[in-house]
Amino acid sequence: MSSSALLEQISTFMNEQIPFQKHLGIVVTKFDAQQSEVRFRWQDQLVGNAPMQILHGGVTATALDTAGGVVIMASVIERLKQDLPADEIVKRIARCGTIDLRVDYVRPGRGKEFITTATIIRSGNKVAVARMEMHNEDGMLIAFGTGTYIVG
Amino acid sequence: MSSSALLEQISTFMNEQIPFQKHLGIVVTKFDAQQSEVRFRWQDQLVGNAPMQILHGGVTATALDTAGGVVIMASVIERLKQDLPADEIVKRIARCGTIDLRVDYVRPGRGKEFITTATIIRSGNKVAVARMEMHNEDGMLIAFGTGTYIVG
Amino acid sequence: MSSSALLEQISTFMNEQIPFQKHLGIVVTKFDAQQSEVRFRWQDQLVGNAPMQILHGGVTATALDTAGGVVIMASVIERLKQDLPADEIVKRIARCGTIDLRVDYVRPGRGKEFITTATIIRSGNKVAVARMEMHNEDGMLIAFGTGTYIVG
Amino acid sequence: MSSSALLEQISTFMNEQIPFQKHLGIVVTKFDAQQSEVRFRWQDQLVGNAPMQILHGGVTATALDTAGGVVIMASVIERLKQDLPADEIVKRIARCGTIDLRVDYVRPGRGKEFITTATIIRSGNKVAVARMEMHNEDGMLIAFGTGTYIVG
After folding, report:
1. Which ipTM was obtained for this model?
2. Mean pLDDT calculated for residue range B102-118
3. How far is residue D98 CA from its own chain's centroid?
């Protein structure tokens, strides 16, 4: 499979095979084997503290875990042989999973749009680690964190 | 305000003022100043890994943060003077917030219902810490974690 | 190698091959493939806050990581074939390593003796997770935490 | 007290009132209210894995917690009124403490010298958060982490 076909394959997986991400309106906007970016817009149903109008901590955790998962999957795929059939690639991605996640909440989750980036810190054939940051549309740091993932 | 009126006040806050919890169908089933329990049922839209049919890590993080937040809020209220007006209580609860959260994913998130319990480990007038566990309806441990919260 | 010879092999490794543990006076007092216990006594040089006479957070982290490492190593060895030569066992143990560690400090580290226990929570052939608690001689919970380990 | 006298006061505290830091040879090399740097040299007694010649995870945790603690203390002092008597400053510093610490171990701890830097991420009047990184003398990232601290 060509490299562009591969990327399309991954995008399809990410947009179709992760229902909860879709449910929250989290969209993958960039990724390669080193970094990823996901975005979502404010919605009233994502609020965790209505009097204060602040995002639920679980929404932030979801965005961080999603961005981390995307870059981990991309890095796993990059290591695979280029001619692997598409269904085998999906099988490999599906074996990836979060082992643990830490989220540090820096500022109240307020804004119109939230941009979460992830960077690979450790990339092994058993375990991979990614570091994530979430900013709002004004560039304010809302949260950061680290995820440790098992890779197939 | 009487103790039972107080509990009703808190329940109302938790069920009405946390839209994201409601959106995911997470219901507070028990709480006092030491422990809390929240539950939600499987829904296809909560899936993070469709080929494997596993909950999204962000859903688990949301359940843990919710259970932790509930017990923290109950413990904050317990410390307040009994005759505080209801709107003052809401103000105090609204000032609580998660500082950091760690989630350890032990087994794939599969089941019909998920029960998350939280226990207060540290309860100060600045910071409180809760420990959480999520099991499915068969009593299988799916995840555990710790949350550190700022209290008003 | 017999089972008792195996245990002796491990004990020797733990007491001779981990200089920092020895340096702090941390002694492995119990272990099997599910749980471990390590102990150390108060020493003035372990203090992190002299005016308050409290253990350094790094000492507590060391005790937790040590207890976690011990139970992980024991669980790795249990999975090995019984007739593996001793030097091969040492090689396998030496490949284990901490991926990440979280420590929650519950109470000031004060006491005469500190007892840290670890329990295996997840035991895979790539990754293992242990949960740890440290008490003083009066049974006061000083700290708890979680370690994620890579296994050979 | 003048600003330079203040800095000297802090340095004295850090070098004299933290015995465990001294015991491991960890020296504070830079600090202000935003960032800090601590250094230590390889010593055989700091090893956690003798066959592999790798630092004990607890040593790394100690260095990270120390760097984080230093920047937190500096930031607390910066907020104090300039004319506070020296013993009052010591009292304030002594009230600071680590609530929780996460360490991510990226590469085996090998090198001649280890440089740990900390940056303040959140600085409140109840809680402060610092992010830390440890490199060896070749600039290799060995570990990073986050500490949450209570401030007096």
Report:
1. 0.93
2. 97
3. 11
